[in-house]
């Protein structure tokens, strides 16, 4: 099958799986992106995330992840909610309203690969979604799906910021996209909105100051982190402040993926976006394990969520 034929097939399968967009980049080392990553690690911006300093060679060169790789296929999974969580409740990032995106996106990517394998027997592939040393945003930008904003998000001019990036490494050539013109201009809304000044100039993020990092990844008490989140910030899992401040966030339609609809908990079917502070504090581990087994919130676990409210 020709590169044009393979690309057309992937586009068709991508649409069938419900992805908002698809693009591809030629597999080659990410020298500039890796240089910025090394600089960030050198400055300690990764905090407790030691894994970011491991396997840098794999992050740089996709050929070390799949022998004979020719293409990096990128897919945008839309998770934009139809409504925002009310500020009267302890807030969670909008990507965590529904089920854990890691498995959802990977399953859809594997479905695409299964069909590719049936049509192209000698095809080889590997699937990733925020679970391995792959720089998804850098690849998606190279594939022409958007540009990297000052808030470090991949920003699609058609679909905004509410997207999860899935990646397939493929040993076949396809049609490759071209870079998108940067669209931030002189706008500084995300930098000015961040209450902890985690966003630095030139699209650099000091994770130690980031509310999302502090409420999910950090292994120490928030008060010990550099310029920790204010106690009244309201966020107990993740943070959407810089996302919501971006004018491009208005782009994109609410997601139709049922997996990203607001999860329910308890016998009466309460919404996880409407859990009060009192309900969180009185919740026990058995209840959390039962009703939040499919939720991204399990990454932080109940004890950390409670500590975040303190």
End-to-end Cα distance, whole Å, is 58 Å
Radius of gyration: 20 Å
**Main sheet specs:** 4 strands, antiparallel
- How much helical structure, as a percent, in the residues? 25-40%
Strand content: 5-15%
- SSE string: HEHHEEHEHEEEHEEHEHEEHHH
Strand tally: 12
Provide a count of the helices.
11
Shape: globular
Mean pLDDT: 93
| Count of individual domains | 1
Describe this structure in words.
The model is unreliable at 222-227 (pLDDT under 50). It is built from 11 helices and 12 strands. It has a 4-stranded antiparallel β-sheet with strand order 1-2-7-4, sandwiched between helices. The protein has a two-stranded parallel ribbon with strand order 3-10. The relative contact order is 0.17. Helix content is 31%, strand content 14%. The longest helix is centred in the middle third of the chain and has 19 residues, at 101-119. It has one domain (1-310). With 310 residues, the chain is α+β, with helices and mostly antiparallel strands. It has helices at 3-17, 31-42, 56-60, 101-119, 136-142, 189-193, 211-216, 241-245, 277-282, 285-291, 301-309; strands at 21-26, 71-78, 91-92, 125-128, 147-148, 154-155, 163-170, 199-200, 204-205, 235-237, 264-265, 270-271. Helix 1 runs antiparallel to helix 4. Strand 8 and strand 9 form a beta hairpin.
Q: What characteristics describe this protein?
A:
310 residues, alpha+beta, 4-stranded antiparallel sheet, two-stranded parallel ribbon, 14% strand
Write a concise synopsis of the structure shown.
The chain has 310 residues and is α+β, with helices and mostly antiparallel strands.
């Amino acid at each position: 099958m020709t590169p044009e034929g393979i690309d057309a097939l992937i586009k068709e399968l991508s649409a069938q799986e419900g992805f908002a967009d698809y693009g591809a980049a030629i597999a080659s080392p990410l020298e500039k992106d890796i240089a910025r990553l090394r600089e960030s690690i050198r400055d300690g911006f990764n905090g407790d995330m030691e894994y970011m300093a491991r396997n840098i060679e794999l992050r740089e060169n996709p050929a070390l992840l799949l022998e004979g790789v020719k293409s990096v296929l990128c897919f945008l999974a839309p998770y934009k909610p139809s409504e925002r969580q009310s500020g009267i409740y302890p807030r969670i990032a909008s990507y965590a309203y529904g089920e854990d995106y890691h498995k959802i996106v990977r399953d859809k990517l594997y479905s695409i690969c299964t069909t590719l394998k049936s049509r192209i027997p000698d095809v080889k592939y590997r699937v990733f979604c925020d679970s391995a040393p792959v720089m998804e945003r850098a690849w998606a930008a190279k594939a022409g799906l958007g540009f990297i904003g000052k808030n470090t998000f991949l920003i699609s001019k058609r679909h905004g910021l509410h997207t999860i990036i899935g990646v397939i490494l493929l040993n076949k050539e396809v049609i490759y996209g071209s870079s998108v013109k940067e669209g931030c201009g002189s706008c500084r809304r995300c930098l000015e909105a961040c209450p902890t000044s985690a966003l630095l100039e030139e699209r650099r993020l000091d994770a130690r100051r980031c509310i999302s990092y502090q409420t999910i990844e950090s292994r120490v008490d928030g008060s010990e982190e550099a310029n920790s989140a204010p106690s009244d910030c309201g966020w107990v899992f993740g943070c959407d402040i810089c996302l919501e401040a971006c004018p491009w966030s208005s782009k994109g339609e609410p997601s139709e993926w049922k997996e990203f609809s607001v999860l329910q908990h308890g016998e009466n079917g309460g919404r996880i976006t409407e859990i009060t502070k009192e309900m969180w504090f009185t919740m026990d581990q058995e209840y959390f394990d039962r009703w939040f087994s499919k939720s991204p919130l399990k990454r932080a676990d109940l004890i950390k969520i409670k500590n975040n409210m303190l």
